[in-house]
Amino acid sequence: MARALILVLDSVGIGAAADAAQYGDAGADTLGHVAEWFAAHGEPFALPNLDRLGFGAAAAASTDRLPPGLTSDVPFAGRWGYGVETSRGKDTPSGHWEIAGLPVPFDWGYFPETVPAFPADLTAAIIREAGLPGILGDCHASGTEIIAQLGEEHMRTGKPILYTSADSVLQIAAHETAFGLDRLYALCAIARRLCDPLGIGRVIARPFTGTDAASFVRTANRRDYAVPPPSPTILSAAEAAGRSVVTVGKIGDIFAHVGTGTVLKAAGNAALGERTLEGLASLPDGGLLMANFIDFDSLYGHRRDPEGYGRALMAFDAWLPTLEAALRPGDLCIVTADHGCDPTFKGTDHTREHVPILAFGPGQPAGPIGRRATFADMAATVARHLGLTWTGAGTAF
Q1: 258-280 pLDDT, tens per residue?
Q2: pTM
Q3: Among the four residues 83, 268, 386, 387, which has the most C-beta atoms within 10 Å?
């Protein structure tokens, strides 16, 4: 009985979905535009290990054009294709839940692009129940920008910074020491309960440190308070069958710790890679590991930094052979993404895109798997590979 891994490169989309215009994302292409930025600036950009697994070929299949620096003319070492999201949204829970076999058939609740963005009765309840002197922000904003703008006032007044985005999310930023990390977590738990009737997918604690706008920096103590999945996922199916489950990074939070087994946390892609290897080393036959590599999205996509995004991709590509060396015969590893976040696109939000599906491992077959009608095909494939009974969405490839 072999093992299975799902590695989610957070926001590494490979071209606008057919319905992207409905989300204001027509023309978005995270990978393609990152590669074009490097080409336009005369900077080297190559992903030889991902290319060997079919990354360039998947991107070309998605968009009918090959990103500069990539190739589709190599002997492939795995199966490759691209996934189409059927969930309504372009957010983290929708993408991850669908990868895990649970497309989101309902509409999340969203906060309007107004000031204030939050309903008055919601903010009043948060202030009352948490014993706050008030709140700051109450708008759509970039997290790093609003902390720089309001962080000093927050430290003077004790008022936390509440903001949102195009996602179904309420984010709360507060200073780790001036406000207190445990107090921030307690505040987010209150906000999570109050947001439930509004259908908000996540409340996110965004702690930061520093003494002024120039030195404020968000820490690794982020915590997501998500709605639990309403139906079984591949994670909970594996757990119910008595299999070992390991989740790395923010996966545990995304699934509200339902079926997420042993949770390994880390800050940054390099550390997340180390924890993935740690989890893999302890994973017995029949086990499932799911990891999220967050830097692409949080550090470079939302901050609209194509150079940083590309260099993070090259760093992951350079790490990939280390992972491959840790795989055993029969293991199946799938590299994918949950949505796009084109760093050359307007605004700072996610983009509605296709995602790569690269499936490989010692003894695994190679070749195209084509266009997959739902991300859930990955869950169905993992279920078949692990010999699990699967009643969720998707068709195994």
Answers
A1: 999 999 999 999 999 999 999 99
A2: 0.91
A3: 83
